[in-house]
Amino acid sequence: MSEQESNVSPVSPSLSAEPRKGKRLYEAHKKIYMRTVEGRFAKWRWVLVWLTQIIFFSLPWLTWNDRQAVLLHLVERKFYIFGAVFWPQDVFFLTVLLIISAYSLFLFTAISGRLWCGYACPQTVYSEIFMWIEQKIEGDHAKRARLDTSPMSARKFGIKALKYAIWGVFSLWIGFTFAAYFSPLKELLAEAPTLSFGPWETFWIFFYAGFTFLFAGFMREQVCKYMCPYARFQSVMFDQDTLIITYDGARGEPRGVRRKGEDAPRGDCVDCGICVQVCPTGIDIRNGLQYECIGCAACADACDGVMDKMSKLRGLVRYTTEHAIREGWNRAEIVRHVRRPRTLVYGAILLVIVGAFLWGLATRTALRVDVLPDRVDPRVVGDLVENAYTLRVMNMSESRRTFRVKVTGLQGANGEDCQCLQFFNDEDVYVTMDAALSEEKILRVRAPRSVGKPGRNRIYFEIQAEDDPNVMRREKTIFQFPG
Description:
single chain, alpha+beta, Immunoglobulin-like, four-stranded antiparallel beta sheet
């Protein structure tokens, strides 16, 4: 289990020890020396740490069809996600994905509070890792507090230098991996020995590494308390049936240790203050729900340990709802109240959007075509009128393909296609491309003057894959006849 920063005293660090002298714009920051905590929720936090980091660090190394499996290639302006290739024209999918993320946040927050913050948020995950490194080098929370207050010495300098060096190397590794999602990993590995990265790659490696070092190493709970907007609007998504970390005041109060010969009634809370000492944001959960609480349940683990030693029932601090505390509900009743109007509406909307997203992906064509007519006036060659077009064909599949191009659309006297449109060289046009590439061709189309009306006439370009007739696009454009 990691050792994180904690207050040695049970007093909340948000309260300055120095008496106030008049009004202050802000309170002075007091470093939190978080005490080590063990328990089921702590184990789940480390499961999520390992899971998220295995995914983050391993994805750039996976290959698919002789290329990087996950690559958001900014230079080529293409996103490779395993077997799918997304182009700038697919921004619709990104928009829908962001909407899904937003509604998922609303739904899961309404049900279970800030589980994301407490277990999977990068700020929480990297703070956990950095504090584990700190604990291994500097010792437990009491030793770290003494080391920080001691005068500078060779020993203190060496310990701090070693910690910062390991933090720095790990941060650079994180920044390098982050850049590998946007620039091919093979290129970055080839450039790494000589540090010959491109300008934007250099910027993002050191930018991401620097802020990871700063946020996870020094700012920690300040990011959650003062910078993260989620803490500020979470109350909009909470209600009295939302699962949150809650102190059972009816059971715990009045708090304090029963002394020998004392007749006054006492609750189960012995006022040890360990719940405050293990809190990563330094709050006292016994004061009720606070926006600084990230739902990590460290206080629940700590309190359960104390209850075990006191031979009392666990759960004085636990995941529950305000209604359950007030009404004395059991677990089945809590689960039953998960289904309420708010969660049903969020769930229904989310289901519809996810269904539309999956349908869009399933029906997404492997071919995209743009036809741009030339802006110059049509050219007259004898009895023929010639228009020029720029044809942009994008092969969005993972295989080399040849596409046949036809042009149709002008109507004869009987209203049927007169088959009078032809390319400049009177031959069929074929476009052959490798996987996930685009190509532009300048095409000139001719038609007799007698088959069209002066001005704009609608025609169609039909592009079809030779190996799969179902891969076909029909794009409309205009054919201009002189007046």
